[in-house]
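Hi there,

I know you've been waiting on this one. I reran it after we fixed the sequence typo, so this is the corrected version. Both the input and the resulting structure follow.
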Amino acid sequence: MKHLNEDIIKRLGVRFLKEHYKFRPRTGNTVTSLDQETSDGIITDGLFTFILEDGSPFLATLEATSFESKEEVYYKRQKDLLLWDSMILSTFLSVIFFTLSHHYDWITINKSGWPLTILTLILLLGVGFYIAKSLIKNLQRYRYIYAIEQFKKYHADEQWIAIADDVFDESTNGYLEELKTQCVRNGFGLISVDEDERARILITPSRQEVFGKERANKMFSTRDEAVHASKTEKVKGFWNKAISKITGKRSDKSVSRYQRSFTSQILLGLVALLIISGIFYKESMEAPIAYVNEKKYEKELSEIAKKSKPETSDYLIDSSYVDRNREKVKPYLEVAEEGVEENQGNWDTEFARYFDDYGEEYAEIYIASEEGKYVSYDCERFFNYSGTKYMIQEGTYDNVTSARKQLIRLRKKGINANCLWTGCLNEDDMEFIIFVDFLFDQKKEAGVIATNFKRRFQLEKGRLKIRSITL
């Protein structure tokens, strides 16, 4: 089979352009030329130009491809770019994960240690890289066609690719389908030349500008003039080759020279790693936290409750006479409630002594402090809690005065209690709950503490109750 050489395709392509544009309105003569090149190495096999009626120039360029130079229109996978893109996506996936992990305290340096944290980072990078590569490998971004990419480097009103019929073995060839797809997407024309030297249109170029003003106008001249004009560029040759090895950008005259570089990917990768390093550094500078195993803690509390013994209610007195009929000693909390008011004197004085906010509008929450007073808060104190909590309730009171009096009674007997206004939980409820100890996450844990409290203070059955609240 006879193969048309590239020179024949160039001449046939230019002849086709003359025929195609013969009815386009113009002024003056039409200029055609072959083998033109810019000072920075952009090549066009055919150039067709004239002046439009409005005085602006019209420029059409041609890229001719024969069977011998078919690699100019066959796409190549940009494997290096795909690897770098996949790596960057996996790196930023890791940034997102460790940012959330730091905020929600999932896997941190203090909680999980350096080995597990670094292992998690490596797994995220590896799995993220594999997933990203699988998802993006078929994108057109990674299918490089030299003729298409060279057209993108300069501005022309219309650009054509002329190929010999034998460049592709059949019309359903995958490389031909990709070439057509990219020509349509970028607004380029496509011509096919058969062995009888007849040209036919496969795709017409877009009449509207696809790239806007993104592409620069270039000055074309003959190859010899371009070589002479670009001698100053040779001084940069050594530097460009060194940079190309780092960034992946080709600086030679091969068909791969317009492949995309991955300089920006390298910079983004460094930024992502810097963010992760900052998160790790911040975590490593924080004080370590000891995390309690809840199941183990509950088990220990249960064992303590089983082994602990209540204080005896009878005492052996070193005396010859013991009054067996003496009145039974009342439980500790009852003593705290009764008889206290006889020695209290002025309640206003007592309130001022124990409550710093006495005399002002009452607060919704009172918490016992180590200084012997009650610190007041509003309902916002509980806004950072969520879910169901459990408390050991001593009692409920209709008004704040009664609740304050009971807090003082309990404090005078050495019992630290707290007070919560139920309006914080339900707008229709206006009681004041007095509870001992703290709020608990588990009902079982609250029950163990309540049992120990009853035994310690010899409380009658039902004196303390476990109450759940929803925050």
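Quick highlight: The first strand starts at residue 27 and ends at 37.

Best,
R. S.
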